[in-house]
Task: inverse folding
DNA sequence: CGCCTATACCTAGAGAATCTAGGCAAAGTA
DNA sequence: TACTTTGCCTAGATTCTCTAGGTATAGGCG
């Protein structure tokens, strides 16, 4: 049973901050958006996403608001707080650092 | 308490396969080598590294041999098995896939 | 010699992230 | 009516990492 990649671990928060930094979204939408944009690479389970959103909300990086869609359906929209925006910048920087570090070890296969 | 980056999680196996694909090494050496090459970014704790090595050995990706250094000190050298080399190729490919997927979400900040 | 640091291996238990595998309910569709 | 999709949620198991130890040898210094 080959897992997609263990590398995904730990990237969730960064992905969520990035997405929500572009526009507020609700949980279900986030799952689909991540899958669409990554051409099917990211397929978050609800059991992963919702706890993650709650975690970020609890940390003050996100706030949430219920909205009623045209059909009467309830959706919980998340958007970044100021603290969240600060963290987003931080996370992006961390991602670049991580990339640089990985590249010092995982050299590309030379032809 | 700001952690370096949660991103590191899940990259350990790939890093170890990569390193040991270049030359056999022993645990203590691996920790120093990772830190040196990454200019201090990777600072693995022994409580992380040794269980990871044992895990990979148990999976048949690594084998280990005891050697006695000049001073009489015992060192356990790990090197890749055939299965390990196959997995290394796989891991490198996964890393590139992961990179590509991340880039679809984490767009670089435009000036 | 005695003491300290660096080397070199190891493990148990706690903490945290993810997945599995459900549950509940409303809206759309056949 | 029945089924699928949407949309929220959680409890428990699994897995990875870290904390915080333990053991032992080698080498330097006073």
Result:
């Amino acid at each position: 049973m080959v897992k997609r990649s263990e590398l995904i671990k730990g990237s969730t928060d960064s992905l969520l901050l990035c997405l929500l930094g572009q526009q507020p979204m609700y949980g279900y939408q986030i799952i689909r958006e991540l899958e669409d944009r990554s051409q099917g690479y990211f397929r978050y389970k609800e059991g992963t996403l919702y706890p993650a959103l709650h975690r970020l909300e609890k940390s003050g990086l996100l706030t949430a608001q219920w909205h009623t869609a045209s059909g009467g359906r309830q959706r919980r929209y998340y958007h970044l707080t100021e603290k969240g925006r600060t963290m987003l910048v931080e996370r992006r920087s961390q991602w670049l650092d991580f990339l640089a570090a990985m590249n010092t070890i995982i050299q590309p296969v030379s032809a």
